[in-house]
Amino acid sequence: MARFPRWKYALIAAVFVLFAAAALPNLVSVPSWWPFKKPLNLGLDLRGGVHLTLDVDVDAALARAIESDADEARAVLRKAGIRYRRISPGKDGFVVEVRDEGKAAEAERLLRDEFRASYELARSGRVITLKLKPARAEEVRDSAVDQAIEVVRNRIDALGTTEPVIAKQGKHRIVVQIPGFEDTARAKRVLGRTAQLEFHLVDEKADVEKALREGPPPGDIILYGPPPERRPYVLKRRVELSGAEVVDARVSIDSRFNEYAVTLKFNRKGARKFDR
């Protein structure tokens, strides 16, 4: 008959006592001197709850980044006084066609200086093709997923739940587990909303009342402020800045007025756009 050393029995007993002590707060109220005061976080297998897999539209994020870069190319050429026939964004870059072939070399130089870190450039006559580098495309996709994870985390916090599991799965999916939360329909509704940060200029020449009656002028849109006033604004449709140019955002206290304020930090391209 096999016999085990006494220390093995003592070790098994100690582990059992340790886990029993850790699990006790899940069953009863423990005194203040108890070493384990917080209940153990029980997963979906023990408590039930919501399990969702979200698919991030990374292609849309890439398209917005390319469109933003195409807008930046327009600004660069306009500043240099170089006229162009078209600037056409595509799925992996954009094409610039200048009017004067004699200006094509200068346009290529300006665009190369501006976009050499993100795009591969090639010129044929008046046409300059900018193709997004694979590393930059992957960076944009990863950033879109990371931003989506933060949005999901904030929305789950608004549900009033505790200890959610939020993890990246593969290249563009997010797995969400909310133990103990049974309202699956509400979770889908809250987490499935589309959220995009965009900066639009106010059309100061537009008549708001006329726009509400007859529709906004060409190139404009109508958006409403927060409740309860829901004040209408007529904005330029063109997106001047997007969340892709925001590196960091946080709540701070405005020392001048002692009020809450949102502090934004832009990347180099976003800071240059915001300064215009």
Give a description of the structure.
The protein has 8 helices and 13 strands. α3 packs across α4 and α3 crosses α5. β6 and β7 form a beta hairpin. The chain is 38% helix and 27% strand. The model has no long low-confidence stretch (mean pLDDT 83). A 4-stranded antiparallel β-sheet has the order 2-3-5-4. The chain has 276 residues and is of the alpha+beta class.
Count of helices? 8
Content-based structural category: alpha+beta
The overall pLDDT, averaged over residues, is: 83
Shape: elongated
- The count of domains is 5
Write down the CATH class of the largest domain.
Answer: Alpha Beta
Order of helices and strands: HHEHEEHEEHEEHEHEEEEEH
Q: What name is given to the CATH topology of the largest domain?
A: Gyrase A, domain 2
How much helix, percentage-wise, in residues?
Answer: 25-40%
The fraction of residues assigned to DSSP E strands is 25-35%
Q: What is the β-strand count?
A: 13
How widely separated are the two ends?
86 Å
Order of the strands making up the biggest sheet:
2-3-5-4
Rg, Cα atoms, Å: 28 Å
Describe the sheet with the most strands: 4 strands, antiparallel
